[in-house]
Write a structure and sequence with these properties.
The complex is a heterodimer of chains A (155) and B (220).
Chain A lengths: L3 E5 L13 E7 H26 L24 H9 L9 H23 L11 H23 L2
Antiparallel strand pairs in A: 1-2
Helix pairs in contact in A: 2-3, 2-4
Chain B lengths: L2 H13 L1 H9 L2 E3 H5 L5 H22 L7 H10 L4 H28 L8 H23 L4 H15 L5 H9 L6 H33 L6
Helix pairs in contact in B: 4-6, 5-6, 6-7, 7-8, 7-10, 8-9
Classes of the chains: A mainly alpha (155), B mainly alpha (220).
The structure holds protoporphyrin IX containing FE.
The site of protoporphyrin IX containing FE (HEM) has 25 residues of chain B, from helix 4, helix 6, helix 7 and helix 10.
């Protein structure tokens, strides 16, 4: 295997401003890296073909605005929003429960998500030096899983 | 000189490929990136996007975005169009796989701290990509115009509509009125096949350019 070593600026150590070059061991893009990409592509395409032939996309009865079906499910990646809305039934001071139910999982959540690099000013990329960020990440993931579950059992 | 060489030389004379190619072909991929499968997730999401574009164009040849015709045209794709059922199913599964890949990619970037200096803005672009990807799913869900499509969209737009301040505007822009009608369908269709594809292509271009300029972050 043609392992190559290259000189690189120290910019890949997040946060540290050191400018002396670091040595990075690596493979050339072609053919090594490309070969790995081709293998991954085959696995992905193979899985898609298998799923599509075994479980074809469904089509229910035509839409009828006068007949509400039950249960109604959105795409799975929106379930946690539905779940949170059902879960949150408490008014907070003058703010009605429903406003919190829609604002928290959409506006506040995406607002916080987009601000992550500006909120987390800790320069370390080691898991053990980032206990707060890692803890928050796990709490949020468990929360999303929980509210997804909640929306399925309480439809 | 044989034909491939002549073609290569023709282009090389004009575009200096022999100077442009080596930096791309020899560009080193760090060892850890080549061996750790967590780094495949971004590329997998991109592959999904390409498959979605291809299968989506195929579906657009047969799909008709009106309340009278939509359901029938999807039924026609599923039963009469050669390979129609397979290609619609591919579009369906690839869409779900893309959201899964994008989510896992975001989780890996988060836990590796790959969003830190100097990559803050690439995280921001990433969150926008995540929003675009999920909105693709939301707008596509209505198009078959079956019971679930209609009612899930009714609830979804209802939730978006009750966001304080912006809600009523979001709802009006999406629905084109106060209820789900033929206007809503053409809007969702325009969003799904014109607005979001344009947005994702621009965002992906910026995302990949930043990865190329800044390199992959060096943890592990
Ligand atoms: C359509 C969706 C997306 C595609 C196709 C995509 C593609 C990629 C690719 C191919 C890479 C190279 C490294 C890798 O594959 O892991 C990358 C890196 C990166 N992506 Fe994405 N991405 C997408 C969405 C996102 C999202 C949702 C986020 C975060 C919110 C994000 C943040 C980043 C960051 C910060 C990097 C640099 C990581 C590093 O240097 O280690 N991307 N992206």
């Amino acid at each position: 295997m043609a392992l190559i070593e290259v000189e690189k600026e120290g910019k890949d150590m997040a946060g540290t401003q050191e400018k002396q070059p670091v040595r990075v061991r690596g493979f050339p893009f072609y053919p090594h890296f490309l070969l790995r990409e081709v293998v991954v592509m085959c696995i992905v395409i193979g899985s898609i073909l298998m799923l599509s032939s075994l479980f074809p996309a469904g089509l229910l009865k035509p839409a009828d605005p006068f007949d509400t079906p039950s249960p109604i499910f959105p795409e799975w990646y929106y379930l946690y929003v539905f779940g949170f809305l059902k879960f949150w039934t408490f008014d907070v001071g003058p703010i009605p429960a429903k406003i919190i139910g829609v604002t928290l999982p959409m506006v506040v959540w995406y607002g916080l998500l987009i601000m992550v690099p500006f909120i987390d000013r800790n320069p370390s990329t080691e898991l053990k030096d980032r206990k707060f960020a890692v803890g928050m990440g796990i709490v949020v993931l468990l929360g999303i899983l929980y509210f997804t579950y909640y929306s399925i059992v309480n439809h | 000189m044989n034909l491939p060489d002549m073609i290569y030389k023709w282009f090389d004379d004009r575009f200096k490929i022999s100077e442009l190619l080596p930096p791309i072909v020899k560009h080193p991929a760090p060892e850890k990136v080549t061996s750790n499968p967590l780094y495949c997730l971004g590329g997998t999401a991109f592959l999904c996007f390409l498959i979605l574009a291809g299968s989506g164009i195929f579906l657009a040849f047969y799909y008709k975005p009106t309340p009278e015709e939509a359901y029938k045209s999807v039924e026609h794709i599923m039963t009469a169009v050669p390979m129609g059922s397979l290609i619609r199913s591919i579009h369906h599964w690839t869409a779900n796989l893309m959201i899964a890949a994008v989510s896992l990619h975001m989780i890996r970037v988060y836990f590796m701290g790959a969003y830190k200096n100097p990559r803050e803005l690439n995280w921001v672009v990433g969150v926008l990509l995540f929003l675009v990807a999920t909105t693709f799913g939301f707008s596509g869900y209505l198009l078959p115009w079956d019971q679930l499509a209609f009612w899930a969209t009714k609830i979804g737009t209802g939730i978006a509509g009750s966001i304080p301040v912006m809600g009523p505007y979001i709802s009006l822009i999406l629905l084109g009125g106060t209820d789900i009608t033929a206007d809503t369908m053409t809007r969702f269709y325009a969003i799904h096949v014109l607005i979001l594809p344009a947005a994702i292509i621009v965002l992906l271009g910026v995302h990949f350019m930043m990865v190329r300029i800044q390199g992959i972050s060096g943890r592990l």
